């Protein structure tokens, strides 16, 4: 690791990432297929640096949002299936053959188009069918899903290798979640799905997995990066550890009669938002130091009266540990009025990704 040239950087704890995947997998019913959700550059954790760790931890398959993300995985891993969660535009569809991706479909138009593309190439295309059980995003509405699945089964160049749905409120509404699970289970049973992947659980949903059946795969995003989707309201199925820390340096210090102010080398261009709440802090020399606001493109002003011995060049922690103190990602998110998912993906490319704990 060489942070000497970095004015702001993220540290990615690869050992923690690998352990998280392993622990989550161990907590699942035996034989459950682990689909690692790595869209948005592995939620900002650098796909190229983390991809091997997902595999070592036991990921069986990857999921992303679009074909560009599939192509980035294919530069690194050729063997594992990659599911594309979002619908593909007509122009993008031929690429699934080029890159070996598994699309998710929910309309007959997609089925027709994929079938003819597959036929032209003399191929049989594996795909998953997305069912809407009450989220209201894309997906075939569950009341029409059995009929749709039967239609798609008739296409000779398509093979349904999975069916899935997405829970809208697994973190906060138990009865709605049970209703979605019932809707989905009914479709799966009526269709008589055999030897295909059946999945519904994302991070928050994992608490509902119990004995598994009829589900035999899960799609894990946030939790594998060490962050609970519940914000401390309930326990997660595995005791995971945060992977991402966000740091910068003291660029300069100015003193007046009232205050000692550090100019910290990260601003909006490093993803530091300007709307910090009043009590927001960073860590300097292991002490909590209040953010004064004054976030500009490249800098943030911090009152370092609590760490008056600090010097130019010192490390400043926005997210992570220092000394005995910790600002975890959910707390930082709370201060910036974001949810943890947003925090992770909002840290731009300018911020270097440095690997720690490689062992
Ligand atoms: C992003 C996404 C996930 C992962 O969700 P987490 O809450 O981060 O675990 C799972 N399924 C679908 C369809 C998604 O779009």
From TrEMBL:
Family annotation (InterPro entries): Ala_racemase, Ala_racemase/Decarboxylase_C, Ala_racemase_C, Ala_racemase_N, PLP-binding_barrel
EC number: 5.1.1.1
Lineage of source species: Bacteria, Pseudomonadati, Verrucomicrobiota, Opitutia, Opitutales
Pfam families (UniProt xref): Ala_racemase_C, Ala_racemase_N
Keyword Flavoprotein: no
Protein name from the UniProt record: Alanine racemase
One MF term in the entry's GO annotations: alanine racemase activity
Cofactor: pyridoxal 5'-phosphate
Alphabetic keyword roster: Isomerase, Pyridoxal phosphate
NCBIfam families (alphabetical): alr
Domain Alanine racemase C-terminal: 243-356
Gene name, Swiss-Prot/TrEMBL: alr
């Amino acid at each position: 690791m060489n942070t000497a040239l970095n004015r702001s950087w993220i540290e990615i704890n690869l050992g923690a990432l690998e352990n998280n995947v392993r622990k989550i997998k161990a907590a699942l019913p035996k034989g459950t297929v682990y689909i690692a959700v790595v869209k948005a550059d592995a939620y900002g954790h650098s796909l190229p640096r983390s991809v091997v760790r997902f595999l070592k931890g036991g990921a069986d398959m990857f999921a992303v949002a679009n074909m560009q993300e599939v192509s980035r995985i294919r530069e690194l891993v050729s063997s594992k299936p990659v599911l594309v969660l979002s619908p593909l535009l007509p122009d993008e569809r031929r690429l699934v053959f080029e890159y070996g991706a598994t699309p998710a479909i929910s309309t007959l138009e997609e089925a027709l188009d994929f079938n003819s593309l597959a036929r032209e190439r003399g191929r049989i295309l594996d795909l998953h069918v997305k069912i809407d059980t009450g989220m209201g995003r894309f997906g075939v509405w569950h009341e029409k899903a059995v009929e749709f699945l039967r239609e798609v089964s008739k296409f000779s160049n398509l093979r349904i290798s999975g069916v899935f749905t997405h829970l809208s409120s697994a973190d906060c509404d138990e009865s709605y979640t049970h209703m979605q699970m019932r809707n989905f289970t009914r479709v799966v049973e009526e269709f008589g799905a055999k030897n295909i992947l059946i999945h519904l659980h994302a991070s928050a949903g994992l608490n509902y997995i119990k004995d598994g059946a009829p589900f035999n795969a899960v799609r894990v995003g946030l939790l594998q990066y060490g962050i609970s989707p519940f914000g401390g309201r309930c326990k997660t199925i595995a005791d995971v550890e945060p992977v991402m820390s966000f740091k910068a340096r003291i660029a300069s210090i100015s003193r007046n009669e009232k205050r000692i102010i550090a100019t910290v080398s990260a601003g909006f261009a490093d993803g530091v938002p300007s709307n910090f709440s009043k009590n927001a802090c960073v860590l300097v020399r292991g002490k909590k130091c209040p953010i004064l606001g004054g976030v500009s493109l490249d800098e943030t002003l911090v009152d370092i009266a609590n760490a008056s011995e600090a010097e130019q060049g010192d490390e400043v922690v926005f997210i992570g540990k220092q000394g005995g103190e910790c600002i975890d990602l959910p707390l930082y998110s709370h201060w910036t009025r974001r949810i943890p998912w947003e925090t992770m993906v909002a840290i731009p490319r300018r911020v270097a990704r440095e690997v720690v704990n490689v062992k």
